[in-house]
Amino acid sequence: YAPLLDKKSWGILPVQVKHNLLYSDLARYAPLLPHAHFIAYGINAGGLKLDSNAYTSQASLTTRGGNPIAHAALIAALRQRVEDWQRDATERPSPSTMNHLSMIYAVCHSNINALLIGPSRIAQLEDSLLWASNLAQYDYSDVYTQLTITGQQYAATR
Length: 158
Fold this sequence. Notes:
Layout: H1 2-7, E1 13-18, E2 36-41, H2 60-63, H3 72-87, H4 98-107, E3 114-115, H5 122-137, H6 141-157
Parallel strand pairs: 1-2, 2-3
């Protein structure tokens, strides 16, 4: 699409791209960078949870046939990171859920301009909005860097 967009004067187009710790379409859409405002969707990797006990029969990952155990190594690494960040002596709130980590991973990426969130309950919406305000107020670039490294290490072992 990039050559077509070069010929048209449509300005910046909103483009949604799947972007999460397991998979990202950003590289595939790289030719659109001069023309696009990227909106990340699928940020929670299909419903991965840090707490394996939080999966219910209605959890989105399991209802779509996903297997949380398949990503046990990544989840274990992320839980360890969360524990480390919670011991950190900064004034900023520490991420404590997969959604918090996912929002950091998307918002802090230099090519992501916005998030498309998909809460299924009011409590999830409230948490996402609260966490978005934290992301606007505090610097989480170090957390983003560590998430990127963790994701790359996990991908290399798959």
